[in-house]
Amino acid sequence: MAPASRLYCGRGFQEAMQAARVIGAAPVIVSAGLGGVDGDDLLPSYNLTITAGSPDDVTAKSDPRASAKAWWMHLVEGRRSLFDRLRAETGLVVIALPRAYLTMIADDLTALPSALKPRIRIISGSDVSGVSDDIAAAQMPYDDRFDGRNSPNPGTRADFASRAARHFIEVVLKARPYGSAFEHQADVERRLAGSLPRPRPLRARVSDKEIAMLLRLHWASTRGQSTRLLRLLRDEVGIACEQGRFARLVAEVKSEQEAP
Fold first, then answer.
1. Model pTM?
2. How many helices (H) and strands (E) does the chain have?
3. Nearest alpha-carbon partner for 215 in 259, 258, 254
């Protein structure tokens, strides 16, 4: 068992923690395996996600027909709602999550009290779906322009929401702490104006079988390190491979390599 603040150590989490420290906030973690988690909660080590195609996709482990939203409802059933603690908050609530996780908790967001919703700011990088119009209207317009050539905080798609949230808190919110959602959206747009998305390289699309063959071919030279394998596929070989699909194929090849 370890405190959540020590168990989660990826860049996305570190960016979110830094943003929280700036305003003295206590972050709430949305966990696909444990529900709503506070930073000082003691947690077991686990590896679950709702990323489709990943070997750690919890919906595939529980029931291939289950949706992430149904899994979340089962996970939090009979427990204190993730947002119960937000009802007493008087300041802004910044929710920074990838689209899949926002969709997972959409019902909780829609069920928030009407008085709280104007104080919500959602940062994702993708359109919010499955939520009420008043929640969708709280989305800040961060998009691929934030990762352009002059990005104030470049990174990967996996940590986009947290990086953008840090920018929102350190720059936009600092300049206009009491602004409305509309004013904050306009401020984000002004700061992104003139920025162009970084051109995306054209990569070939190949079958799972061909990718697995390449993974086997380069397994020894990369020591089976997933980060090096992914960079090799995308940057050196020029092959497109979505993160969840890649994780699944690496797991399959790893199991072959470790077989007696």
1. 0.75
2. 13, 6
3. 254
